């Protein structure tokens, strides 16, 4: 029997302290439901004592059914020199309707003096009173010992007194926080071990990533006896972020054999992490461990030829265990074996002796020679291969586009695009403005397609990169445009190469939309007659 | 006296295996020079046996002076069943002209059987012969024991034999690699300890980040006796990346008291990390530990009020130690010290109390808030500073430009620019075609200027990069264009920011030409009469 570890997710509270993250109540509910599917044990939804948005969140989830997770609300110990029953912050926790309250208090004598400016004794009383009050209201109480490690290093005796007070008052969990993220794994190990030998209450760990050690520190704490890990999906959080649950969960379960979530739930990890990044509107780094798009991507030729013999030669786990998958980045460095792997992935009959295979390899070679580089552009490669082996429905073809950018002194620039495309045999002529030329083209092309393919509204471009291929004469040289596009389920990359940045962008853009529409069925525009009257559709 | 640890940077070799990273020879040289300034001890420049770009790199650095770093070239042990003196790969290392060779060999019996498909004995001979051959050529030899930790876990006896062979053959360093990134800190600790008790050769560590533990694993190895750490700036590298030197260096030096680089060099860490991300055209996550823009940014109200009382309440180190700074307000000036350094370099009287200084700092703050980042654009910063302190002659001003791109099916694209500028009071109206829109603009603007400034013919744009600043909505987001220009004597960089890529390019282009013309004297066009007849000049 393996030991079980509880996961406490604070994406909705501490996670939102990260720069650039802001979640609506609706966003928070969506994420909470996903976290519940993933199987986390606690979901910290917000701080009802600090803002009305969080109060609304708790109102809305009060009657919702969660399968796995308990919802918890965050707050602080009572204010100094007051009574818990008069404390608005504590009462908001009670009123929020949660069954679990999480409150933080001070462990570091320096903070008691400097930040809250009271006596060490009063701080102990604040901890005791607050935990005791919430327990008297029938709540499960998680006590977060803020700055515990810094406090312990500065005055271990006092730091221990603070958590003993929480224990005396009946706290269900005592969570040791490395709030500044400055501690090292061996410090965590020795301090958690000392705490475990002094208190009986179950212990948790709350780490921050300021030294890029939050995952290691969380594992060290568990190995020293902690049984709850607090963190956020994708490591969102203030400064350098909180401990990243997307890495901690698989490390605990697959590497250290703790019982955390079910095997099935673990398989949803990649999808949940990407979903949260979409809702939070944060770009997910391709190299994010376990769940990133490149986490199991192979580029070097030696690596690729070895993984064809056995994937475990260059993969530390089977990617499917966390719902991710192997990708082979095709590049000149690696040669043909990478194309072969991609074809296998797509179940194409890629026999090297076939004429089709020879032709497509020649074509890819030729494109690479022109400056295409498919390693970062899976979707463009997939389109090429599917076209060669299966044939692809021609969804739209370009007849022409015009793009105009105009600027006068002291006036902001104007961009317009006029696009004439044939969609399923009908010529559509549209025009649109945009923030820039590519945005204008994107807008015009979508306008032409959305009536037939309404799903295209969910697709958006999430990254855009331009690389000059021959730097010797930069503005007259070829450029490679790499675009990344996203909908709620997945992310794909496409590319285009041309000496003209607009043309290169057009190629990447059309590939992105062609990929998005693979397997999608055309609908008949609801307002076709009207369009014909307006002259938008020409037969 | 603290113990010294050597830093081996492989940004230019293993780092380029990361998805989306591709460096030109020029980029590699720029990064190598920066790494040397930072004070790393070894710079691995590439794999001369694998591609001609890397051969060119070693040719170009051969006669360059590096203050701190030794340049090293990477390769593998000889092929099976052959002689080292006949091995092209080993001979390329010798021919590259480096004084230090880094070669990798197999430690894991599984790989010997599966990947290179030879006998365990032949693999030992391959290691011995290769190290011995390179030593006989007078080189310092770093032996990278690939997959050492996986090998040791599978067959510790054989793994130990492989590194003993390297030791016997005279290797100067034996570097233990966690190639798949799947090991945990306690495994690293126990295996490095076992190795240290069996061999005398100095030991290094090479970790990957697949479990988000590469930094922790590198520290664990050093604490167990390793004295060389291999990694990359910003953790670039295959899959989830290599160990991140931007975090490891400050952790070793500030937290564990090892001697790594000088205090002054450490203060350049943030700037070097950002510079490398600019050159590599990789977005730096704001929450990157130590060097990220949000690494010391405070958002939570409680945190902010506490740091106003004492910064150490919520900061684990003083940010200036790594050249970063605290940010509380969004528009805080990130690179003030860089501005100061630049002003000193230009001999400007940059007294913080002067009104001019305050004004220019405000202006730069404002521009940074808009997305300007002067770290990679010296020339634009110099123009700003000179303008504020000395005034600059207005060489030309824009009246308007129009830019047209047109494409029809099966025809190549056409780009035209029409530019109306005032040069020394005369309005000049020119038009030009180009390979792309920026090239067309460049051509039209040059046409207007070259008659007054013939020197401008020698200037050309040598690199052009585009970065999307807010990935949430890529084609409608702001973009930053970074241009590098060159004449026969020097190279300079300029930038422009706009939501329109053409406008951003225009700003960078005009800065480039303004910089090129600094101190140049206007000449009277030889053929002015003729131009007037042609209507090119309007008074």
Features:
homodimer; 539 residues; alpha/beta; 3 domains; 8-stranded parallel barrel; 4-stranded antiparallel sheet; 38% helix; Citramalate synthase (chains A, B)
Structural summary, described in words:
The structure is a homodimer of 539-residue chains. With 539 residues, the first copy, chain A, is of the alpha/beta class. Chain A folds into three domains: 256 residues, TIM Barrel (Alpha-Beta Barrel); 93 residues, no CATH class; 133 residues, Double Stranded RNA Binding Domain (2-Layer Sandwich), CATH 3.30.160.270. Helix content of chain A is 38%, strand content 20%. Chain A is built from 19 helices and 17 strands. An eight-stranded parallel beta barrel of chain A has the order 1-2-3-4-5-6-7-8, surrounded by eight helices. A four-stranded antiparallel beta sheet of chain A has the order 11-12-13-17. In chain A, helix 2 links the parallel strand 2 and strand 3. In chain A, helix 6 packs across helix 7. The longest helix of chain A is centred in the first third of the chain and has 17 residues. Chain A is elongated and about 80 Å long. Strand 11 of chain A pairs antiparallel with strand 9 of chain B, so a sheet runs across the interface.
């Amino acid at each position: 029997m393996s030991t079980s570890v509880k996961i406490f997710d604070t994406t909705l509270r501490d996670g939102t302290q990260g720069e650039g993250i802001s979640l609506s109540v609706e966003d928070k509910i969506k994420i909470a439901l996903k976290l519940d599917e993933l199987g986390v044990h606690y979901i910290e939804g917000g701080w009802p004592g600090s803002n009305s948005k969080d109060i609304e969140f708790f109102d809305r989830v009060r009657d919702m059914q969660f399968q796995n997770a308990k919802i918890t609300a965050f707050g602080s110990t009572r204010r100094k020199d007051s009574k818990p029953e008069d404390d608005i912050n504590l009462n908001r926790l009670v009123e929020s309707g949660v069954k679990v309250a999480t409150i933080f208090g001070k462990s570091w004598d320096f903070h008691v003096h400097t930040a809250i400016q009271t006596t060490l004794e009063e701080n102990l009383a604040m901890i005791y009173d607050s935990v005791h009050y919430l327990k008297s209201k029938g709540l499960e109480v998680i006590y977060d010992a803020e700055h515990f490690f810094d406090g312990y290093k500065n005055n271990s005796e006092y730091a221990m007194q603070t958590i003993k007070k929480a224990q005396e008052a009946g706290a269900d969990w005592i969570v040791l926080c490395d709030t500044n993220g400055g501690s090292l794994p061996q410090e965590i190990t020795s301090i958690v071990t000392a705490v475990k030998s002094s208190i009986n209450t179950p212990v948790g760990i709350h780490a921050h990533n300021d030294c890029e050690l939050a995952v290691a520190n969380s594992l060290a704490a568990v190995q020293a006896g902690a049984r709850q890990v607090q963190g956020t999906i994708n490591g969102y959080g203030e400064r350098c972020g909180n401990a990243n649950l997307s890495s901690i969960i698989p490390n605990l379960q697959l590497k250290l054999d703790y019982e955390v979530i079910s095997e099935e739930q673990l398989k949803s990890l990649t999808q949940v992490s990407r979903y949260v990044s979409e809702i939070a509107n944060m770009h997910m780094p391709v190299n994010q461990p376990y769940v990133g798009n490149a986490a199991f991507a192979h580029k070097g030729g030696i690596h690729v030829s070895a993984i064809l013999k056995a994937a475990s030669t260059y993969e530390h786990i089977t990617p499917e265990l966390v719902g991710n998958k192997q990708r082979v980045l095709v590049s000149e460095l690696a040669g043909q074996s990478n194309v072969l792997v991609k074809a296998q992935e797509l179940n194409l009959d890629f026999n090297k002796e076939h004429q089709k295979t020879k032709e497509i390899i020649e074509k890819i070679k030729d494109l690479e020679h022109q400056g295409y580089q498919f390693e970062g552009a899976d979707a463009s490669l997939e389109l090429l291969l599917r076209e060669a082996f299966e044939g692809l429905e021609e969804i739209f073809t370009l007849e022409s586009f015009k793009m105009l950018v105009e600027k006068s002194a002291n006036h902001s620039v104007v961009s317009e695009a006029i696009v004439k495309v044939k969609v399923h045999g009908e010529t559509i002529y549209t025009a649109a403005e945009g923030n820039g030329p590519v945005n204008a083209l994107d807008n015009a092309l979508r306008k032409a397609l959305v009536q037939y393919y309404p799903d295209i509204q969910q697709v958006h471009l999430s990254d855009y990169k331009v690389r000059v291929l021959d730097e010797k004469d930069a503005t007259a040289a070829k450029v490679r445009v790499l675009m990344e596009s996203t909908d709620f389920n997945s992310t794909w990359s496409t590319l285009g190469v041309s000496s003209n940045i607009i043309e290169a962008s057009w190629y990447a853009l059309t590939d992105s939309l062609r990929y998005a529409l693979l397997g999608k069925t055309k609908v008949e525009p609801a307002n076709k007659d009207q369009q014909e009257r307006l002259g938008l559709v020409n037969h």
